[in-house]
Amino acid sequence: MTRVVAATGNAGKLGEIRAALAEAGVEVTGIDALTDTTPIEETGTTYEENARLKAEGYSRRTEDLVLADDSGLEVEALEGAPGIYSARYGSPTLSDRARCRAILKALIDTPEAQRGARFVCVIAIARGGTTLATFRGEVPGTILREMRGEGGFGYDPIFFYPPLGRAFGELTREEKQQVSHRGVALRRSVSFFTKERGA
Fold first, then answer.
1. Angular region, 66: left φ>0, alpha ψ -120 to 50, beta rest
2. Most buried among 51, 89, 142, 178, using CB within 10 Å?
């Protein structure tokens, strides 16, 4: 079985990664599997740069493959913000719910036609300090006027997905996995792990 360290301390992300790669015969461990879990500074200006920085940095601390992702919410009315700064929007110390409230407040006077948004995710896979592959996933939606649902994490409660008529926060993990930006990127990464297992 292929083994990969998921470079995240976010339990929600880790669960999604494990679920997506289990069918591909990939054993996913969390970042706590590393002896040195000192955070890698995200100094990139794009999702791909930050994903590569994290994957390469952590992969120097283990012989295993490392998978890292960088993702964010891009809101049209905020000119693409918070984007790569999604996890720190408002303040690095804010909770997920507080960040959602900050977005809702920023859009309080924004009409429905201008509340378009998208989630973006880029996954990088590295070994020994070298990126071996990257995969990108995107999903379009709109920003609600209030939070809905108790599922998911991050901005899921305010992100409305029109094809299902529900917020990401109202979806089951399985439903979200099928349509989310991270789900898309992870499914695209399966081909890499299939080749790796056969090598």
1. beta
2. 51
